[in-house]
Structures are given as C-alpha cells and as structure tokens.
Design goal:
Blueprint lengths: L1 E6 L5 H23 L9 E6 L4 H13 L4 E3 L4 H14 L2 E4 L12 E2 L2 E2 L1 E3 L4 H13 L8 E7 L2 H13 L3 E8 L7 H9 L4 E5 L6 H8 L5 E4 L16 E5 L5 H9 L10 H18 L4 H11 L5 E3 L4 H9 L4 E3 L18 E7 L2 E8 L5 H4 L2
Parallel strand pairs: 1-2, 1-3, 3-4, 4-7, 8-9, 8-10, 10-11, 11-12, 13-14
Antiparallel strand pairs: 5-6, 12-15, 15-16
C-alpha cells in the first residue's frame, strides 16, 4: 500500500531543516504503523518526493505519485505548493495532509463531488490573524492606532496579511510585500518607516527574517508583532521586546514520546509534530475506511480525529486497530495536540501570546481552541 511525502528536500537554511525533520517524523509514524501490521494488515510503502520549493517540480513529483498508485501523502509544506496542486488533487482523487500549509483559502480547496482531497494538521491562518490582531489592538499589549503589515510576497504571506488587515481595529497605513531570501530590503524598510506606523505586523516563514533585522537597524522604533515560528531558540539581540502569536505546545506524554523517537535531532523544527500526526492519521483513516481509497480516507478523517471516542496517540496503532475492529469510535490525540479535524479537514488550535523579555520568550496569555470556534462556523 503506497503512501507518500512531498517535502522541500533540496531547500537550504531553515526550510531545509524543516524538510529533514518532517521526513524523520513521517518515517517514524510509518514505522509505528507497520510495526502494528499496517492498516488493513498491509504494510505502508513510503515514497518521498522533493518539491524543490518550485511548483513545476512539485507537479512532477505529484505525477510520479499518481503513476505509483499513491493513495495519499503528507505535504506539501508550503502554501504556494499546496495551492498549485489543489486542482490536481481533486482531479486525480489523491488526498494530501499538509503539516504546515495554513493559507485560509485552502479550507475550500481541492473539492470534487462533495469530497475534500486536502487536509491539514496545522490550523488555518485565520486563527493566527485573530491572535496577531489582538496583540496589535489590546491595551495590555501594543494598542496601535496605526499598523504597517510587512509580508512575504507569496500565497502564505498575502493570505495572512489580508486576514490581519481585516481584523485589526487600527488603521493600516502600509502593506509592504517583500521577497524572502534577498539581501537588500532598503526600499521596503523605508516604506514601513515613512508610514510612521505605531507597530509593524511581520509575516514570513521560519528563517526568513532578514528584512525585519534591517528594519530594526534602520532604525524603526515602533512595536513588532511576528507570525508563528520566527523567533529562534537563541533569540538575537534585535528581537528583544517583540511579540509573537504562536501555536500552544504542551509537554504531553505524546509530544515527549515523539521527541524521544527523534532525540538525535531535537529541538524539533516547526510543525515536525504535525508531520507525524499527518502520517499517523493517514494510516488510521485507511483502517477506519476499510479500503485504501482517497475518497474513503477523506470521509473517515473526521471520524478518527473528531474529539470523541476512545483515545489513541503516538505509537498506538495496534490499539487503534483493535478499537476499529470492535466497532468503537477512535479519537486520535497527537504529538502536536488534539488534532480535532472539522468538516474542512482542519483543526482549531490553542494559541499563546508571547513576548521576548531579556532574550527569553515569555508566555503572556493562552487562548484556548474554543475561542476560535465562532468564527470558524461563520
């Protein structure tokens, strides 16, 4: 039974590390599944493709999956690649479970005949936008009357920037796109500074913070609110005092067990736990569906991660098989958290508002997942 992973294996820097860690997590999940005999008593055969952070290369890798009868795969990692493959997923009836593509429009992507062929174990960026807007608006935090939004010039950046703009109470005085990976951001920096914004909302992927560093060095004296995953373990000097909206992570037995499985690469890169969960859910949905068919997998995903039933977690595929065979409802609680998938095949996550103080990341407020339920149903 063939499954896949589509990762930016040839990427350098932070995304290269993400790809390596995600691959290890996916391989660990497949090993856990196969050690229990595999879904439907068939072993999973994992095929790994390289997206190369390029839509054409990703399409070539996807076509190879189709030729190899891959029923589903973990990935893509980045939003641009996920969006570029959405129509192909629906046309070929292959399901993708992304660990990290958070673009809001993916909630309605890859749908054919009422079946959704794109799922994700990371939350929709609408949640992150609400948290960043709260930081920008709230008197306890920034309380900005004017805001500049600097964003990576890609689908992820545009989507999150738009969602922030729609939710802040203050006036957006500048929206500044930038291309990650270049050396000179003087034009973009001057646009932000000349806007005289009280605060800047900075939206980018992990590792792509060169523009932010140049902005602070210019200098810019307003407050800074950063998107998920931008503050590294060793906090640089220029980030002192900055805010961040981050998915809440708990040191549960599940997350600890995965860390132990991958102890040679800890600390784990962003969304590595989500990659394990995506692979485990793929196998679990096949077991629940009773067949290795993408449409049946899609239909089964909410029933094995819906927040009700007998709990299974990291490494417990044999227990899951026993429960399914006994016609019991199974609820997967993963390494990344509850992973309760809704009808759009995406979870609601808890978030924390954080701030760098004396080069340590302090948690200021926890926003539970239920806080976001109202908007998700609008």
């Amino acid at each position: 039974m063939r499954v896949g992973a589509l990762l930016p294996l040839s990427a350098s820097g932070a995304l290269g590390t993400v790809a390596k860690h995600h691959r290890r997590a996916i391989e660990a999940a497949v090993a856990d599944i196969n050690d229990a005999g595999g879904p439907l008593d068939r072993k999973l055969d994992l095929t790994v493709g390289d997206s190369e952070l390029d839509q054409s290369a990703a399409k070539t890798a996807f076509d190879s999956f189709v030729d190899d009868d891959v029923v589903g795969f973990v990935g893509p990692v980045t939003t641009d690649i996920s969006m570029s493959l959405a129509d192909d997923l629906a046309r070929e009836r292959v399901i993708a479970i992304s660990p990290s593509s958070t673009y809001p429009d993916l909630a309605s992507a890859a749908v054919r005949d009422g079946t959704k062929y794109f799922a994700r174990t990371a939350a929709n960026d609408v949640q992150q936008a609400r948290v960043m807007a709260k930081i920008l608006d709230d008197d306890r935090y920034v309380a900005a009357d004017t805001v500049a939004i600097a964003h990576a010039d890609n689908d992820f950046g545009k989507g999150l920037a738009t969602a922030i703009d729609e939710r802040i109470s203050g006036e957006t005085v500048a929206i500044v796109p930038f291309t990650p990976g270049t050396d000179d951001y003087l034009k973009q920096v001057e646009t932000v500074v000349q806007s005289e914004a009280d605060a800047v909302a900075f939206v980018s992927e992990p590792g792509n913070t060169a523009m932010l560093e140049q902005l602070i060095s210019y200098p810019y004296y307003g407050e800074s609110v950063l998107s998920e995953g931008l503050i590294p373990e060793n906090v640089p000097l220029y980030m002192n005092g900055m805010y961040s909206a981050s998915v809440a992570t708990e040191r549960t037995s599940s997350s600890i067990e995965l860390s132990q499985k991958l102890d040679d690469i800890t600390p784990l890169a962003p969304y590595t736990q989500h990659a394990y969960d995506a692979a485990f859910l793929l196998g679990l949905a096949i077991e629940q569906a009773g067949e290795a068919d993408a449409t049946a997998i899609s239909d089964s995903l909410p029933s094995v991660s819906g927040g009700v039933g007998q709990t299974v977690t990291v490494g417990e595929f044999e227990r899951a098989k026993t429960l399914v065979s006994a016609d019991r409802t199974v609820n997967y609680r993963g390494a990344s958290g509850p992973v309760d998938l809704n009808d759009d095949l995406e979870p609601l996550d808890s978030y924390v508002i954080e701030r760098v103080t004396d080069f340590e990341l302090d948690e200021l407020e926890l926003l539970r997942a239920w806080v976001f339920e109202e908007e998700s149903t609008e």
